[in-house]
Every structure is written in structure tokens, then in C-alpha cells.
Write a structure and sequence with these properties.
By secondary structure, the protein is of the alpha/beta class. It is 36% helix and 18% strand. The chain has an eight-stranded parallel β-sheet with strand order 1-8-7-6-5-4-3-2.
């Protein structure tokens, strides 16, 4: 199980997005937060910026839609250049139909859960997804401290993935850094979104490699990975 690092451009310089993407060329994917100031109390970039960014980098784009009505908008972000689109369970009217539509358009389908949203009620639809995102902060703003109380939820999610024999990536987002990434990996995550831990570093590319090494070592030693 290889660890994957997704630098979040929410922590990058928005005036230099093409250069900021180039600074993390060794990253697995580039994480792009789309917020509408309705589902979350913040407003970020939209579809025209995603289209421009997709042309400016060869790193595949992982879109995290923190928006109302993702059933309408998510498929359009695939057309804008996203290789993976994450919608929130709390906002989607028909998550299975939406996941299938995203996949049909050629992208990976992912669903996110806020910290207070339990995983258990979504067990039956996990086979419809390529990735599940466990938020380890409240969505809406970067730079928040990691919520340790999410670790049991990550473990329960990994157990459900194993129970059903799924090749489902388990992503964590929020407060992921050199001091928290190993705990996330031990609990069951294999995809890590890192914002300030990457773009706040002197060398963002080196930060990506260091985080990947840390997570990879933790995964290799984790009971869940040994049993996979």
C-alpha cells in the first residue's frame, strides 16, 4: 500500500498557481478546494481557475467540492479537467448516482465526510467509490489543528474497506503534517492532503518527499496493511 501525498493549493500563492504547482512536481496529485460560501463559510476558486490549472500542470487534479448542489456541479468539474472529484455526503442528494456519473465521465469518484458524520451509514455505497475522504478538521479553512478524535473513525473506515475487500483509497485532509501523518497512516489512511506542511516549507518538493517517506514507513508497520 503506497502512501500518496496531495499538496493543497489552498495554502499556495493564488497569484502564482502555475509556479506553485511546478514546485511540487513530485506530488501524486494536486488537491484543489472549491468552496462556495454556502456549504462552508469561505469562498475560493471556481471552474475557470480549475480549467487554467489543468492546462498548466501535468499533476492530476483532485477536486474537493465543499459546495451545495454537487449533483449539478461535480460532473462539470470533470469536464474542466479534474481527474478525481470529491463531493460531500452531507450535500449530495443522490450520492450513488453522482458517483456513477463522475466515473462515467472518466474521473475517480470520491465522497467526503465532515468530522461529525459517521461512516457506518454509508457502508453499503462504498463499492461505488474510488476514494473516501475523512475530514480531520471542520471544512472551510486551511491551517486548522488536527483533530485526534478522528483517528478512531479512520480505523473504523479501514475496517469496513477490508470487510468488503475493496481497493478504496482512504484520504485524510486537515492538519496533516510531519507531526500527525504517521498517526493517520497507522490508523488506516493511505492518501494525505497537506497544505501548510508543504507550501509553508522552504522547499515544497522536499516536504512532499519527507511526508511520503514518513507515511510509507508508518503504513508498512501498520497492522491493517500487514493484513491486507
Amino acid at each position: 500500500m503506497a502512501a500518496q501525498i496531495y499538496p493543497s493549493i489552498l495554502s499556495a500563492d493564488f497569484a502564482r498557481l502555475a509556479e506553485e504547482a511546478k514546485a511540487v512536481e513530485g506530488a501524486d496529485w494536486l488537491h484543489v478546494d472549491v468552496m462556495d460560501n454556502h456549504f462552508v463559510p469561505n469562498l475560493t476558486l471556481g471552474m475557470p481557475v480549475v480549467e487554467s490549472l489543468s492546462r498548466a500542470t501535468d499533476i492530476p487534479l483532485d477536486l474537493h467540492l465543499m459546495i451545495e448542489n454537487p449533483d449539478r456541479w461535480a460532473p462539470q468539474y470533470v469536464e474542466a479537467g479534474a481527474g478525481s472529484v470529491t463531493f460531500h455526503a452531507e450535500a449530495a442528494a443522490a450520492p450513488v448516482r453522482l458517483a456513477r456519473e463522475i466515473r462515467a465521465k472518466g474521473a475517480r469518484a470520491s465522497m467526503a465526510l465532515k468530522p461529525a458524520t459517521p461512516i457506518e451509514q454509508y457502508e453499503d455505497i462504498l463499492p461505488e467509490l474510488d476514494m473516501l475522504l475523512i475530514m480531520t478538521v471542520e471544512p472551510g479553512f486551511g491551517g486548522q489543528p488536527f483533530l485526534d478524535i478522528m483517528l478512531p473513525k479512520i480505523r473504523r473506515t479501514r475496517e469496513l474497506i477490508a470487510k468488503h475487500g475493496l481497493e478504496l483509497w482512504l484520504q485524510v485532509d486537515g492538519g496533516v503534517s510531519a507531526s500527525t501523518i504517521e498517526r493517520c497512516a497507522e490508523a488506516g489512511a493511505d492518501v494525505f492532503v497537506a497544505g501548510s506542511a508543504v507550501y509553508g516549507a522552504v522547499d515544497p518538493g522536499a516536504a512532499v518527499r519527507t511526508l511520503r517517506d514518513q507515511a510509507g514507513a508508518a503504513i508498512a508497520a501498520a497492522p491493517w496493511a500487514c493484513d491486507h
